[in-house]
Every structure is written in structure tokens, then in C-alpha cells.
Amino acid sequence: MLTVENLQVAYGAILALKGVSLEVKEGELVALIGVNGAGKSTLLLTIAGVLRPVSGKITFGGDSLVGKSPEEIVRRGISLVPEGREIFSSLTVEENLRMGAFVRKNQAEYQQDLEKVFALFPILKQRLHQLGGTLSGGEQQQLAIARALMSHPALLMLDEPSLGLAPALVDQIFDLITRLHQQGTTILLVEQNVDRTLQIADRVYLLQTGKVKFGGTAAEVRHQGEVEKVYLGGVE
Amino acid sequence: MLSVEFLLNAITLGSLCALLALGLVIVYGILKLVNFAYGELIMITGYTLYLLNASFQLPWLVMALIGVLIAMFTSYSTELVAFRPVRTKSLSAMLITSFAVSTLLQNAALLLISPRARAVPLPKLFSASLTVMGIAIPWRNILTVVTSLVLLIGLTLLLKKTILGIALRAAADNFRMTRLMGVPADLVISTAFVISGLMAGIVGLFWVGRTASVTPTIGGAPLLIAFVATVIGGMNSLLGAVVGGYIYGLIFSFLGVMLPQTLLDYREAFMFLIVILILLIRPEGLIRGAGTGERVG
Are strands A55-60 and A2-11 parallel, antiparallel or unpaired? Predict the structure, then answer.
């Protein structure tokens, strides 16, 4: 479904991604792990069209995404929940969700989609007319994910959805990701919470300083002890 | 001193200032650009009225409508031709571009028409007044206030009820995220410029109506008013622009009756003094917006 080949991305003169290749198949939950600065967010932002790669290929459903604008890429079915949630704080919860549904042609289905989202996030129904900025961190994260789901994405990219949340809320978010995965949503997940991520992911890529250090099933990653090497001071 | 007439005058001026400020801030909210070519849109409306009047026999309302449409079209075109190519460059590049557009339009009027004032047609109603309980209220003032209210209500409905309007507010809040919702960047920016042109065009009708004439430099004063009003109200909020506009109108009218005759020439200086005081107390303006302050890249 999504293929990234030898992707290089730079901030000015500094290469943040030094030839990353990975693949996400339909229906999979693929996780990207790695320490801060490994290039995980950079990768998601590049796939979403916010950053332009220096070289390399990104193909989605057979079409190249390189050079496409973020709005075109959303229309093709990739939705990003960025790090830090980035909900529209001066818009109400409902208006946030309406923005999420912007690419939907059939606005008649909007009400139906809204009900589906409320089933997943009951709290949002109570907060519907509140401004996004007045929600708590956990509620904002739920809104950010709900907003992304409103576009019916073929691929949902989540950037550190559990960051800064209380442990009970972290459980809730991981349960939710599992449920979305079981319902057939293809997910590319970036997380710092490695243990929890390895429990739910089909496959894992371990990123280190802009390169894929390891890729395989969650069991393989654990078995090889790669995670410990990278996270516990494993300098090349 | 604080008579009914004073209040009506203050509200009339305030309404014009509020529309002016809105037109400026709707573009600023998204692009973080203070469009210095904004005042020239008023000039364009004025010259459209002058040219139409000189060439055709048309009812005033038709000329006015064409004048506003031309202002909207000019605003849209300047974005397309001048601002879009430099949008992803530095903010300074955009700012200088807006100075260039302003100068270009002014000089075009200077060369193609005349440096001298040109007469603008006015409807008869503009010089008539309505007498209520012994107070003569100029129709021009009534029309100004009513038109402003209609526009403010219309714009509020657009921004709250339509998907495009919500997208405009979202773009002022977080532009990158708005694009990640699938909203085309060009669409929201063009819409903002068209609304900006609508505001300038409508204000233009009343602005040129004050002196019944238009000059190439007529846009300077309204631009400054719009800028000051948005600074008072808060540059990141549309509500702030409206509040700032009315406060400007109120203070300015108040100075007009308070200052002794000898100081009346310095009314602007006193105005700015008050603005400085307001900013000392509330540097971000009276109403805090929600914008991230990030530029469109």
C-alpha cells in the first residue's frame, strides 16, 4: 500500500533521513520506534507532503506522492495526527470534526460518521460545542484522532499519540489504536512507549539517526535485543 | 457635549473603521501580512465610480456595485500576481511586495488619470437627512451603519456556518494543519483577499462620499486607520478588529469635540498617544486571538 524507498530528507544542510526504506501493507499496524531525533516525525511529515524529500521515492497505491501538496495527499487517503495534536483551539469540537471531513464528497454521510466517532469517543459528544482549546490533553488527543478519522483515511499516521498523557489515558489510546486496527484501518504509528507498541504492532521499524536500523515483526525485534542496544546507549 | 449627534457620528465612523480593520485582518490572520496595498482598493473603487460616471449613464447603485466588484477583483488579482509567487519566501519579501503593489497602483492612477482630485458621483440620498425628534441625521450615516451591520452579520454567518468560512478560521488558527485536512492553501488565501476587497470596496463608497472626490493618495488614511484599529483590537482576532474599529471611531470623534480649536489640527497625534497608552497596558491588543503566530510556508 505505502512504499518508501531510499528516502533522504534534509533540514537545511543537515540530513535528517539518510536513505530510509519501509513498507506498510493494507490492514497492517506498522510501528516506527527510535529515540528522539531519529527522524520518525520527519518521515511522517514527508509522507504527508509537509516536507519535501531531497531524493527517494514514496508511492501510495501505485502513485508517487513526491512533490504532491499536503491537501492532495489527504485526498488520496493518508491522514496524519501530528505530534502535539494540533487541534484548532479557536474552533469548537464540532467545527474541528467538520474540518476533518473537508475532503468527504458526500456531506450527507457526515452525520453518520459523526455518530461513529462518538461511539469511539463518547466524551467528544459532551464537548461538541466547546472550543478545542478548552479540552484537556487527553480529550484533545481523542479529538485529533477523531478529526483524522472523519476523512475516512486508507492510511492513518499517528505521531506519538500517548505523549504527555496520564497512564490511564495512555491505556485508553492504545486500546483505541488496537480497536481501529482490528476494524481494518491501516496504521503507521510512531511511539516512544516501546513496550506497549511491541504488544500491538504487526511489524516494527527501528530508526536510528536517520536510518532504519532494523525491521521485522515485533517478536523478532524483541528477540534480537535491538531495542535495548538503541535505547540503552547503543552508539554505532 | 455628548449629544445624540456625537454618538451617531462616532458610531458611523466606528462602523467604517470596523469594516476597514476587518478587511485588513482577515488577510493578516492567515498570511501574517499587513497588506499595504489595501488602501489602494478604496482608491480603485473611487476611480471606478468616476470613470463609469464619465462614460455611461448608469444608476448610482449599479456603479457602486461595479466599483465594489472591481475592488474585490483587484484584491484577488494582486494576490494571484504579486503575493502568491513570494508567499513561501520571507515575510519581508511579502511586505515589500505589498509596498510595491501600493506604489504601482497609485502611480498608475497618477499617470493614467490625474494627480488632481476627480469628482465622484453620489446618490441624492447622501446629501439628504432624516429628522427625528428635532435631530437631523444624515442618510449617509444611517446607510453606513446599516450596511456595516449587514456586512458584519453576513460575514459572521459565512465564518460560522459554511465549510469555507470554518476553513478560513481554521487557517488563521493553524495553517499547516488546515492543509493537512485537505483544504487547498490557494483557496483559503484567495477567499481572504476577495473578502478583504469586499470590505475595502464598500468602505470606499462611503469614504469617497465624504468629499465626493477621489485622488491617487486617498488610500493612505484608511490604511492607517485600519492598521491602528487592528493594533488596538488585537491582530489575531476578527472580533478584535471590529472592537478596535469602533473604539477608534469613538476616541477620534471624542477628540473632535474635546480638543480646543487650536489643537484640533493635532487630533491624529492625540489619537496615536492614546493608542500608545493602550498598547503599553495591553501589548497584544484588547482581544487575544488564537493564532499560532506561525507563518504560512
Answer: antiparallel
Residues of B in contact with A95 (CB under 8 A): 166, 169-170
**How far, in Å, CA of B132 to CA of B135, rounded?**
5
Single pTM value for the model: 0.90
pLDDT at B265: 86
Give me the sign of the Cα torsion angle B90, B94, B95, B97: positive
Where do the structural domains in chain A lie, given as residue ranges? 1-77+153-236, 88-152
Cell of A88: 484548532
User: What ipTM is given for this predicted complex?
Assistant: 0.90
What digits encode the pLDDT tens for the residues B252-289? 998 888 888 888 888 888 888 988 898 898 888 888 76
The CATH architecture of the domain made up of A1-77+153-236 is: 3-Layer(aba) Sandwich (3.40)
Q: Is B184 on the interface with A (CB under 8 A)?
A: yes
Interface of A with B (CB under 8 A): 48, 50, 69-71, 74-75, 79-80, 82, 86-91, 95, 98-100, 102-103, 133, 147, 151
Q: Does B236 touch chain A (CB under 8 A)?
A: no
Fold of B4-281: ABC transporter involved in vitamin B12 uptake, BtuC (1.10.3470)
Q: Which residue of A has its CA nearest to B170?
A: A88
